[in-house]
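About this split. The held-out portion is used to measure sequence recovery: a designer receives only the C-alpha cells and must propose an amino acid at every position. Recovery is the fraction of positions where the proposal matches the reference. Here is one held-out target exactly as it appears in the evaluation file.
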C-alpha cells in the first residue's frame, strides 16, 4: 500500500469514527432517525473506501443492528456514561457474538497493531473458556479485559484501553467492574487468589496495584507480551 492510499484509508477511518460519535450523541438525545442517518453515512464510507472485512465496517454494521430490538422496534438511547457488558462465547445469544466482534476490533488495534503481537497469538483458545468484559461509551468500545478460573485462582489478562480513552481511569473502572462480576458469580469453587497479568513495561500500573495490596510474583510470557503476575489474596470470592 503506497503512502497516498494509506492516508486515504486513515481519513476514511476518522470520518467513520466521527459519524459514529455523532450517532451515539443523537441516539442518546432520542433523535433515532438522525442517528441512523449518521450511521448510514458511515456505512457508505465503509463500502466505498474500507471494504466489508475492515474493522470499522464490522463496527458500524454491529451498531446498526444493535439499534433495534429482536422484534424490529427501535432500541432506547444508549448509556453515554462508561458502562460494561460481561459476555462469554458459550452463550448462543447473538449479542454475545456481536460484543466479541467489538472486543476483537479493540484488541487487534491495541495488541496487534500497536504492540506487534501476532494475530494467532492474541486470539487464543482461552477466549473460549474466559468471561469477557467490554467497556462502552454509548455503543463505542473503550476498554476490555477477560478472566477465567485456573485452579483456586482467578486470572485476569488482556486488560487494555483505546488511546482516546486513556488517562481517564477507564482501566481502573474496568477492573472494579470485573472484580464485582467475579464476586457475584458465586458457585462451588473457592477462589484463593486474584492474579492479574500486567505487561512488564507497564510499571505505573504495577505500582498502582501494589498500592492496592497486590503482590508481584514471577514473570511470564506465554507467547504474548512479557508480563508480571500481580497477586491479591481473595479468599472471599467464589466463582462458578
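Reference sequence for scoring:
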Amino acid at each position: 500500500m503506497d503512502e497516498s492510499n494509506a492516508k486515504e484509508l486513515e481519513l476514511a477511518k476518522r470520518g467513520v469514527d466521527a459519524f459514529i460519535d455523532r450517532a451515539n450523541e443523537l441516539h442518546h438525545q432520542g433523535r433515532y432517525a438522525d442517528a441512523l442517518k449518521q450511521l448510514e453515512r458511515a456505512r457508505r464510507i465503509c463500502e466505498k473506501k474500507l471494504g466489508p472485512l475492515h474493522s470499522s465496517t464490522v463496527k458500524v454494521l454491529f451498531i446498526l443492528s444493535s439499534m433495534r430490538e429482536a422484534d424490529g422496534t427501535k432500541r432506547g438511547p444508549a448509556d453515554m456514561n462508561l458502562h460494561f457488558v460481561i459476555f462469554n462465547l458459550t452463550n448462543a445469544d447473538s449479542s454475545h457474538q456481536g460484543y466479541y466482534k467489538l472486543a476483537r476490533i479493540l484488541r487487534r488495534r491495541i495488541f496487534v497493531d500497536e504492540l506487534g503481537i501476532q494475530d494467532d497469538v492474541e486470539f487464543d483458545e482461552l477466549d473460549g473458556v474466559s468471561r469477557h468484559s467490554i467497556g462502552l461509551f454509548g455503543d463505542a468500545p473503550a476498554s476490555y479485559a477477560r478472566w477465567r478460573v485456573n485452579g483456586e485462582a482467578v486470572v485476569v489478562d488482556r486488560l487494555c484501553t483505546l488511546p482516546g480513552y486513556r488517562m481517564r481511569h477507564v482501566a481502573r473502572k474496568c477492573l472494579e467492574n470485573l472484580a464485582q462480576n467475579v464476586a457475584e458469580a458465586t458457585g462451588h469453587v473457592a477462589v484463593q487468589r486474584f492474579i492479574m497479568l500486567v505487561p512488564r513495561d507497564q510499571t505505573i500500573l504495577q505500582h498502582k496495584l501494589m498500592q492496592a495490596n497486590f503482590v508481584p510474583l514471577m514473570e511470564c510470557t506465554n507467547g504474548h507480551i512479557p508480563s508480571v503476575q500481580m497477586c491479591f489474596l481473595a479468599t472471599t470470592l467464589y466463582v462458578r
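Annotator remark: Residues 145 and 159 are 4 Å apart (CA to CA).
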